[in-house]
Design goal:
homodimer; alpha+beta; D-amino Acid Aminotransferase, Chain A, domain 1; D-amino Acid Aminotransferase, Chain A, domain 2; 2 domains; nine-stranded mixed sheet; six-stranded antiparallel sheet; 7 helices; 16 strands; globular
């Protein structure tokens, strides 16, 4: 990132004793800064607070954090804000310190606006599996080595694929390394259930809300490679890209059915400028 | 830790952009410093180098690292050395930077010698499950949130239990939160296979070598709660404690069969002073 703020201080120096490093004992959020504002910030802060409750990290995203973020990105127009909350420093050993003093880190990088991939993106299946654990499912924890290993599979040919899909040990397709997955079928939208793995993305939750508003049937369910093969259309979402139609999954080509165009327009109306 | 050395510099300030924090993209080793020396250092360094190969982190534990460690602990008698290697800094995103410049951290804490628990320790079963993923199994990665959550289960009554056992979603007992597990049965020793989860501990590997030398049958296999219930004896190992006999697992009591005494004596002969 271009610059960091750690516990309110302009610094990029994290204490080596921090449990975020030692154990990945923490969470993060990646927010799109667009036209000087953090997009969907309340959704991000709600998810962060809820995840902190699940992990027992005594941190609540409150007005002082909102103020800190606003001051930190003041004057910026377009970029990425990374918000990390860890359980803080502690003595050696897995037992959480009591009381814990969480560490909060804000990082900002200026970026240039991306162009929408009108033809769609190319996607592969990763060999690296994603593990199942209900206790951690849905959260964006700092334990992301599975995603790193999956992403590394095509790091030598980065232009070949824009994303890789991850499966669990039951041959269920769970998510992309950095995106959530949706399929268009004759009877509506499908997206993998995230009760055992994966991150419940903020852009994913926007799609779910849009589907509800537009009375589009949306099922959170088990998704197989065969389901994807027989889908009318496939798209990916995350907070920074908005929505990417998928052009190809390992040789299988897809068009962009009207439902994707509708959902994309609805996202654009919610302020996702990448979808305009 | 009392003090840190990061990439050869006396500092406890890690760059916030380090992938060790962002993704748990790294590994660690915990070494017992006893009588001024790092116990079983070659085993730790071999495991670290092998794990770096598996993760694609371009780091080899070589003579310059041995020298750095020796200088770092010079003058110390008894304590714990923590060695962390991460994939280093990188831009945002899961893709590993190429080339990567790994970060190495050495941390040292002085400790006082522990007394051997002659009566054995009390152990519980954790509700938090350990996930299965062959790609990461056996390694001591920085993704340790499952162990943190398991250990947190009895953080409010720390004196009640000295360790908690973790099961996977198939009801197999895999390990303790910070230890490896062994059972004594009529036909020899049993320890959970670690091909799907868990850390292949250095003290565990010493036990395996001892069993081989003493011609004790040792099976690495699937272990159930029922297997543990019907065992003659149970013990736990890690690099700092050496070997702990288990006195009780949730109401089930165990004695200390002669085989545990023999193994313990063999560890003591290898320099594990906690077992004397």
């Amino acid at each position: 990132m271009d610059r960091w703020l750690i516990n309110g201080v302009r610094s990029s120096a994290l204490a080596a004793d921090d449990r975020g490093l030692a154990y990945g004992d923490g969470l993060f959020e990646t927010l799109a800064v667009r036209a000087g504002k953090c997009r969907f910030i309340e959704f991000h802060l709600d998810r962060l607070t809820e995840s902190c409750v699940r992990l027992g990290i005594p941190f609540e995203a409150d007005n002082s954090l909102r103020k800190e973020i606003a001051e930190f990105i003041a004057g910026e127009v377009h970029g990425t804000l990374k918000l990390i909350v860890t359980r803080g420093k502690g003595p050696r050993g897995y037992a959480p310190p009591d009381p814990a003093w969480p560490t909060r880190l804000l990082g900002f990088s200026a970026t240039t606006p991306a162009t929408f991939p009108h033809m769609g993106v190319r996607v592969r299946y990763c060999q690296s599996l994603i593990s199942r654990n209900r206790m951690l499912a849905g959260m964006k924890t700092l334990n992301r080595l599975e995603q790193v290993m999956a992403r590394a599979e095509w790091a030598h040919v980065p232009a070949e694929y824009q994303e890789g899909l991850m499966l669990n040990d039951r041959d269920e397709v769970v998510c992309g390394t950095m995106t959530n997955l949706f399929m268009v079928r004759a009877d509506g939208l499908y997206t993998p259930a995230l009760d055992e793995s994966g991150v419940a993305g903020i852009m994913r939750s926007q799609i779910i809300n849009i589907a509800s508003d537009m009375q589009i049937e949306l099922k959170e369910t088990s998704v197989s490679k065969m389901d994807i093969r027989t889908a009318e259309g496939v798209f990916l979402t995350n907070s920074l890209i908005g929505l990417w139609p998928v052009q190809e999954v390992e040789g299988q080509s897809y068009g962009i059915p009207p439902l994707i165009v509708q959902v994309r327009s609805a996202l654009a109306k919610l302020g996702v400028q990448e979808c305009q």
